[in-house]
Amino acid sequence: MRPHIRRLWWLVPCHAGRGLDRLAVQSLKHGGRAVVEHTTTYVAFDNSKETLAVAIADGDARGEVRFWGTIANRAEAVRKLVARLAAKHPALSFCYEAGPCGYGLYRQILSLGHPCTVVAPSLVPTKPGGHIKTDRRDAITLASLFRAGELQAVWVPDADHEAMRELIRARLTAMQEVRRSRQLLLSFLLRHDRATPTRHHWTRAHRSWLARQSFAHPAEQIVFEELIQRIEVACARQDRHEDAIRSLLSAWSMAPVVTAIQALRGVALMSAVTLAAEVGDFGRFATPRQLMAWLGLVPKEHSSGSKVARGNITKAGNTRARRVLVEGAWTYRLPARMGEDITRRNDGLPEAIRAAAWKAQVRLCTRYRRMQNTGKPQKIIVVAIARELAAFVWAISRMVRPAATQA
User: Fold this and answer.
1) Pick from 164, 185, 163, 183: which is nearest to 175 by CA?
2) Res. 21 pLDDT band, cuts 50 70 90
3) What pairs with residue 93 in β-bridges?
4) Crossing angle for the helix pair 269-279 and 218-248, nearest 10 degrees?
């Protein structure tokens, strides 16, 4: 061996030749046999409806990051790509950004025996001042950041959980359609000076009053009848979704969690299934503060030195789960008591869960009155109660375990 390249083999391993594409490192020798250590090759997809832009980053921190090419966003094309890369690289790790294309690519890569990470798009580091965006550049950037460990993974539900989440979100969509249809009808009546004589809308008396309304012009009567039918169709759709949720709940892995968190005041069945579907695995949050931040219920902050400046809540998390908690927080404006519905939901639950739910009710009702007495605006009080309610949801969910899903 030449003196200028001589090294102590027990301290510094000799790098393999270029024929291995920097993927194998020849390590220590034992009994004349070389022990080979493989590094991981990182593959990133920039996915769209029709195509997948592919970039590859060598395992070495200073290794090459190159654009591999574009393939069709089809299962067979992905299978061929993975097989081709696996033949050249001993260890592969894949990633792509979460988006409208779902988790089919993630599950396919896992089934092929390779790890895959679904990345949170909002947490991908970006360069300020960048004004050029292409699939090629996005894939190369994603591969480089993936190798550097700068990407944040999202929680990926299993197929059964995703199916239940689709049903629960469809129910929320139907509920929004009911609200929108009712607003359209009330606006129509207001434009034609038809003031509602009842105190509240959509009660039995209000519906009877609507049935007695008629308009002189045929066009106006048609519009009125169509709006009535639109409300009836939307309400029927919402009822069907809720019936389906109730019938499928017992077979869902999150059923024990849904039953447990219903012990809390302001968290009835539909609120509980929404929280369970949107949050998923509560165990991925080490502390309740992490769940609060994920829900976007923590205040913004721009502090420096001795100056502390906090603003409104970030609203950076899941909007559906946050809305459910804020709606449930309004119930704590009343004194703490065990009503008929809460008592029924608490029946059969372990004593620890019932005690935690009662502790939450007493604490949050007391805090609501205390903040109200200090002159805080009601909306700020409700958001503060919702933030602490999220902590109690986290605590109770940790007392039970989701049921095992069937393979």
Assistant:
1) 183
2) very low
3) 42
4) 70
- Long-range contacts of range 332-335, CB-CB < 8 Å, 24 or more positions apart? 332/265, 332/266, 332/361, 332/364, 332/365, 332/368, 332/385, 332/389, 333/365, 333/368, 333/372, 334/365, 335/365
SS3 letters across 290-334: HHHHHCCCCEEECCECCECCEEEECCCCCHHHHHHHHHHHHHHHC
- Give CA–CA dist 278/324, Å, rounded: 11
* pLDDT computed for residue 306 by the predictor: 84
Residue 308 has pLDDT above 60, yes or no: yes
Q: Is the pLDDT of residue 14 over 90?
A: no
Q: Are 320 and 280 in contact (CB under 8 A)?
A: no
Q: Which residue has the tokens 């519905």?
A: 341
Asked whether the CA dihedral 188, 193, 199, 203 is positive or negative, the reply is negative
The answer, yes or no, to whether residue 27 has pLDDT greater than 50, is no
Which among 198, 218, 216, 220 is positioned nearest to 207, based on CA atoms? Answer: 198
pTM of the model as a whole: 0.83
- CB-based contact 93:148 (threshold 8 Å): no
Q: Average pLDDT, stretch 218-243?
A: 96
With tokens 């809305």, the residue in question is 323
Tell which residue, 334, 338, 344, 339, has the closest CA to residue 385: 334
| C-beta of residue 317 within 8 angstroms of C-beta of residue 293 | yes
- The answer, yes or no, to whether residue 28 has pLDDT greater than 50, is no
Rama region for 301: left / alpha / beta (φ>0; ψ in -120 to 50; rest): beta
